[in-house]
């Protein structure tokens, strides 16, 4: 039994070692990510594009010369947009989140948004982090 567990552990460790990050070109991004970047004028000023290839998960990170970052899943769907000090385009923000932020924090803009299957997280220009459910309902201020 111990030998079997040891072999399984060694196999898992060797697979984890095979996870790698690789610098790629814009043309190697999934088409959906390429379309997204072009639609938002983010194809000029790319510093690098990194493909993160882990055991069962692939993702892409696009870093811009101005420090902005975009993260995409394996299919090219955006996971995170971090524009540092610029506002995230309103078209990318779910309506309930836009309404909540405009009402509760009228002098701030959303500079970062990330989405997961069950929630959205946003960062405001004042540094405050907010969490919303997948429907855009406010949940809490994140520490």
Automatic annotation (TrEMBL):
It comes from the Bacteria. It holds the Pfam family PepSY_like. Gene3D superfamilies: 3.40.1420.30. Keywords: Signal. The keyword Signal applies. InterPro entries: PepSY-like. Residues 58-139 form the Putative beta-lactamase-inhibitor-like PepSY-like domain. The keyword Acetylation does not apply. Residues 1-19 form the signal peptide. Transmembrane segments: none annotated. This is PepSY-like domain-containing protein. It comes from Sphingobacterium litopenaei.
């Amino acid at each position: 039994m111990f030998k079997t567990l040891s072999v399984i552990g060694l196999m898992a460790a060797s697979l984890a070692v095979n996870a790698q990050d690789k610098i790629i070109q814009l043309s190697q991004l999934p088409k959906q990510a390429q379309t997204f970047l072009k639609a938002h004028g983010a194809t000029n000023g790319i510093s690098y594009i990194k493909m993160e290839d882990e055991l069962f998960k692939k993702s892409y990170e696009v870093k811009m010369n101005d420090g902005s970052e975009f993260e995409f899943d394996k299919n090219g769907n955006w996971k995170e947009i971090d524009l540092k000090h610029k506002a995230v385009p309103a078209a990318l923000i779910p309506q309930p989140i836009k309404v909540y932020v405009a009402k509760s924090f009228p002098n701030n803009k959303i500079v970062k948004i990330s989405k997961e299957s069950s929630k959205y997280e946003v960062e405001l220009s004042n540094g405050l982090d907010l969490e919303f459910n997948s429907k855009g309902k406010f949940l809490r201020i994140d520490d």
